[in-house]
Design brief:
The protein is α+β, with helices and mostly antiparallel strands. The chain has one domain. It has four helices and two strands, in the order αββααα. A two-stranded antiparallel sheet has the order 1-2. Strand 1 and strand 2 form a beta hairpin. Helix 2 packs across helix 3. The radius of gyration is 12 Å and the shape is globular.
């Protein structure tokens, strides 16, 4: 994510929420589209490295319960591949 796209504050990040299904539950994630765009720019090649980076970046603006990390990782990778 470039400085230009970075939100100025938490309120701005909250305006950039998109809902996705994670483990059968619909959750709202702040900055998801920006995160996907930023990871895509990294030109990572393996699904594991992409999923790891997506999870790492999404945790900056969102709470991800430790017990649900695998479900979030799979959901984030699915969203990445669909875009």
């Amino acid at each position: 994510m470039t400085e230009k796209n970075r939100p100025c504050c938490a309120a701005e990040a909250m305006r950039r929420i998109r809902q996705i299904e994670v483990g059968g539950i619909v959750v709202g994630l702040a900055m998801l589209d920006d995160t996907i765009d930023g990871v895509r720019e990294m030109d990572l090649h393996s699904a594991d490295s992409i999923a790891d980076e997506l999870l790492k970046q999404i945790k900056i603006y969102n709470y991800v319960p430790g017990a649900a990390e695998a479900a979030y990782r799979a959901a984030l990778l699915r969203e990445y591949e669909m875009r």
